[in-house]
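Lecture notes, part 5. Sequence design as translation. It can be helpful to think of inverse folding as translation between two languages: the language of shapes and the language of residues. The source text, in structure tokens, appears below.
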């Protein structure tokens, strides 16, 4: 039996799916309608070989979904094994995964490749501008059942009110303007069933953004850690595995349609506190760290100097916990230890980390003066 009430109804392989716009229940009888967790879908993942996309692809494949990755094919398959994964688990995951090689910046070629096949869902993991995602939304939107877009909590306007919640004011001039434009297009100008995910800072093994690694480098070398401001700014981070699980929980969930979800860890942390947690993860005494604070407006400037924006930036994930039944698996200490032991130390062994502290030295000399 299917209930049709304030819903978008779509068919895929003769299956009837009902997506409820409001709260995923039949308003006449209160019956909750949810897609069965045993339903296996054909899912297109844009990217899927580097960091968050890789963990997402693994989570989808291990959930039994048929995963197809669209990327430029630059990462060899043997480099896609994730820490802790046995060869047997890796092969099982790969058996549920295949590739389509292409470049999303070559729109016509991309749509020729992707338009040949039917898709149940699309995870747009690496779209930065509306121009990146609009061809997919317009070209595939008539047939897909769910478009899950990786946005960013960086779209929120800094109003001084924290934590950010999903209904907060956004900043059309933020450096994530392209993601905000894509969200607005999905919400206002398309008929595609969508969900937007807004993570704060993502961390974990394979992180190509030097977030935790920036701290590990200085802790490893017993160097002073220059921190802009007073060190008490609060920021939010989430482990990459927890982000992937949240995205998969949104897939096919009627309650998630037309919704946006913040994702980060349950606890936020000060800059000084994060440095100390990184020390604990590295097996060092946090009380022996030399934390040096400075005025970033007056010090020598380098936009890559510090991994966090020098202000408060953290979110509430209550909505994701409530509607997606999502819970974090990694607290900050365990997650940072995971990153240190399974990423930083491995990179250090093969000399894959640049220990360049020249900017630190400039700031430390400036502080002395």
């Amino acid at each position: 039996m299917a209930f049709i009430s304030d819903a978008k109804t779509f068919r895929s392989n003769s299956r009837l799916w009902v997506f409820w716009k409001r709260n995923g229940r039949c308003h006449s009888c209160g019956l909750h309608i949810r897609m069965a967790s045993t339903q296996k879908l054909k899912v297109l993942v844009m990217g899927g070989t580097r960091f968050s996309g890789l963990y997402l692809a693994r989570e989808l494949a291990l959930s039994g979904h048929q995963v197809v990755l669209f990327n430029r094919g630059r990462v060899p398959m043997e480099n896609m094994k994730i820490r802790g994964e046995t060869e047997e688990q890796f092969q099982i995951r790969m058996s549920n995964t295949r590739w389509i090689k292409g470049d999303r910046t070559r729109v016509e070629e991309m749509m020729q490749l992707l338009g040949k096949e039917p898709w149940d869902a699309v995870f747009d993991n690496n779209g930065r501008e509306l121009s990146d995602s609009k061809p997919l939304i317009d070209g595939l939107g008539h047939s897909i059942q769910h478009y899950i877009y990786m946005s960013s909590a960086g779209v929120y306007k800094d109003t001084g009110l924290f934590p950010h919640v999903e209904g907060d004011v956004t900043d059309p001039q933020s450096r994530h303007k392209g993601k905000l434009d894509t969200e607005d297009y999905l919400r206002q100008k398309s008929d595609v069933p969508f969900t937007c995910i807004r993570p704060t800072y993502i961390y974990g093994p394979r992180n190509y953004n030097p977030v935790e690694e920036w701290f590990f480098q200085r802790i490893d070398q017993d160097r002073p850690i220059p921190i802009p401001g007073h060190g008490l700014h609060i920021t939010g981070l989430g482990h990459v595995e927890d982000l992937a699980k949240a995205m998969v929980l949104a897939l096919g969930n009627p309650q998630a349609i037309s919704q946006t979800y913040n994702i980060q860890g349950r606890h936020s942390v000060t800059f000084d506190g994060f440095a100390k947690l990184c020390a604990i993860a590295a097996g060092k005494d946090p009380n022996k760290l030399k934390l040096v604070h400075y005025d970033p407006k007056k010090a020598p400037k380098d936009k890559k100097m510090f991994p966090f924006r020098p202000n408060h930036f953290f979110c509430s994930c209550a909505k994701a916990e409530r509607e997606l039944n999502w819970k974090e698996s990694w607290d900050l200490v365990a997650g940072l230890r995971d990153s240190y032991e399974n990423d930083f130390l491995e990179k250090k062994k093969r000399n894959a980390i640049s220990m360049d502290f020249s900017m630190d030295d400039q700031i430390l000399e400036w502080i002395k003066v």
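The translated text above is only one of many valid answers, since several sequences can fold into similar shapes. The radius of gyration is 22 Å.
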